[in-house]
Each structure stands twice: as structure tokens, then as C-alpha cells.
Amino acid sequence: MGAAMRRIQAGNALTAFGIGFTVPFLYIYVAQVRGLGSMAATSAFVAFALGALVALPFTGRVIDRRGPVPVVMGAAVTASAGALALGLSTGIVPILLSALALGAGQAVMQPALATMIVWCSTPSTRTRAFALQFFMQNLGLGIGGLLGGQIVDENRPGSFTLLFGIEAVMFLVLAGVVATVRLPHVPAIKDALPKDPAQTGGSGWKPLLQHKAMVQLCVLGFVVFFACYGQFESGLAAFGTEAAGISPSTLGFALAANTGAIVVAQFVVLKLVEKRRRSRVIALVGLIWTAAWLIAGFSGLGHGGAMMAAAAFITTYALFGIGEAMLSPTLAPLVADLAPEGSVGRYNSAFALVKQMALALGPLGVPLGAGVPMLYIAVFVLVSLGIVGLALRLGKGLTPMQDNPVVASRVVAQGGPAVAVKEPVHA
Known about the structure:
The longest helix has 30 residues, at about 35-65. The radius of gyration is 21 Å and the shape is globular. It is mainly α. It has 2 domains: about 1-185, Up-down Bundle (Growth Hormone, Chain: A); about 190-425, Growth Hormone, Chain: A (Up-down Bundle), CATH 1.20.1250. The chain has 20 helices and no strands. Helix content is about 75%, strand content about 0%. The two termini are about 20 Å apart.
């Protein structure tokens, strides 16, 4: 890594550490510590998601026109103010406004940081860069949550104010680190869009919506995020507690197994996936998650007793973690490699928006998971198999450089057919 990439990754890890301090305790803080009840806590989560959904449609164009650095800095300051205000708020209105600002700031950071990573990498090194980002994020979240759990005390509101204060400081640290980064010009695959002038003209959303491969990737991404991330703390948790009789402590172990699987497997998995076609890696994730949902279903059947059900449920979360480790060096680099020059920010923002929409709709699985558990499992088994089909279909429309840049780059280096790739040129 160059100096710019090291700073970006360090700032990203510190921010994840700050977020890990507060995210697991937001519900308890609003509902119990501030005494506002479960409806107020749910409204805070809705405000958090709403801030992201409102801000992201405008983020991409600003990134492409002004560059990612000022966007990250502005988003970090906004998120810092939201976090600090949230820690000091006692009423429902200031809490909702603070959550709105915090959600918008965090959401805008995602595509802006992703664009910075794209600018500091080439198609052949991008896979490893995004894998490292995902690893550092999960490590930061895990350590932050662990330490935050030792600090919080439901009987001392000041302990929660301290947590949100630490999160606010971490966002400002990110802004300071990013301000020192010197970025090269964006490297992009030329002619990622068809040469039809009707599809390449303009700077709005129309060219992106006319880019068939990108639209297919967004549909695939929505299904991926809805079937996995959207179910972790909603439908799957409801299924575990209601159908499988999983205790809250076992659910905590399952979440820890998910994070542990990511941290342990990330770079082992990376060696296996970076030389293979991205579309087939995503398809393999669909098969792994199909197995995970089937094992989850077994945990709810009541065979083998409570210990067997707990082991099956924990295994489900671990398998999801392995799939996530395979997706982290696959999806984000593919979004960047599909983007034409000058559109990386818009493409990253569009994909981040798809992710937020999937996460917002994730709780729709709760009624099925709690009320009709076996139907819930059957639905998501089919959804996971759908990921396989969508990934293989996407692969048919990708160029060799988009689907497998590491191997394609080596073919070019060995005198094979040239692939149109623009390497970074430092400013």
C-alpha cells in the first residue's frame, strides 16, 4: 500500500471502532436510559435509515464533481455532530434529529471512502484493498463493541454520553486523516458503458440506469443484502428466539461467531477468490448461504435438544461470515470497474443506496421468522438460490477484466490480448 491507502484504511478502522462503541447499545439508550420506550427507539432507527436514504441520491454527483475528500470530511463532521448531540439529547425530537444527522453522515462516508480506495488502486490491486477495508471495519466494530460493553451502565446516563462522545471524536479523527491524503486521478476501465451516445451522455442517473450490467449488479446486491445483512438482527434473530428457543446469550455468541469467521477467514478466502471470476464467487456465496439457511431450519425443528439447536444456529452465522468475507473483495471492486471515467462516485453511491434500501426492508422478515418459521426458512433458501442464478447471469455480460482483473492483467503482461485499462496518474 502507498501512504494514501494506509491513511484511508487507518481512518476507516478508527471510524468503525467508534461506531462499534454505540451501535449495539442505541436501543437500550433510547428506550431505557432515556426512558422513552420501544416505539421511540424504533423511531430512532427509522430516522437513522431515513437520513441515509435522503442523502445518498445526491452524494454521487458531488463526489464526481468535487472529489471524495471534501465529501468524506463534510460527512464526518456531520456524523460527529449527530453522535455528540445524540449522547446529550433527552427528548424524542432532538434524538430523532440527531439520529437523522448521524445516519446521513455515516451513509455518505461509505461511497466517498470507497471512491478514495478506487482512486488509490488499480483493477488488479482493488480486490485486496477492499478485502482489507472489510477486515479492518469488522475488527474495529468488534473491538469497539467489546470495550463499549465494559463502559456502559444503564444506571449512569453519563456512560452512554461518553460512548457517543468517543464516537464523535473518531469521526473527527477520520476527517483529519483524510485531509492529509494526496489522491491520484481515478483509474477506470474504459468503455465500461456501451458506445451508444444515448447511454453515455449526461451526468445524471439515466446513463447508470441504462447500463445493463450495473442494473443487474444492483438487483443482485439488493438480494444479497436483504438475504443476509437485512436478517441478522431482525428476521433471523426472531426465528432463533421464537422457533429455535435460542437465548439472548446464544444470539450474542452467534454474532461473535459471524465476526470471528470474517476476521479469521478474510485473507485465507482472499487467496482463493482473487484469481477466480467474480460472478462465480458470488454464485458460490449463494450456495454457502443456502446451506446456512438449511442449518438454521434444522435448529428450529427441535431435533437433538437445546445444545444442538444452539450449535446449528451459531454455525449459520459463521457460514454467513464466510460468505461476507468472499463478497467484500468482490462486489465493491466490481462496482468500481463497471463505472466509466468520472462516474465512480455516482456508481458507488447507487450501490450504497441499494444496500440501505435492502437493510431498511430487512425487518419485513420478522413476522415470518417469528410466526411462520419454516416458511421463513423456505423463502430465504429460495432467495439464496436466486443469488446463484443472478450471479451467473451477470457474469455473461462482464468483460474478462471486469470479471477477473487479476488473471486478465497477467494475460496482458504476458503478451496476450490488450485490455483497455487506465492506470492511475498522480496529480
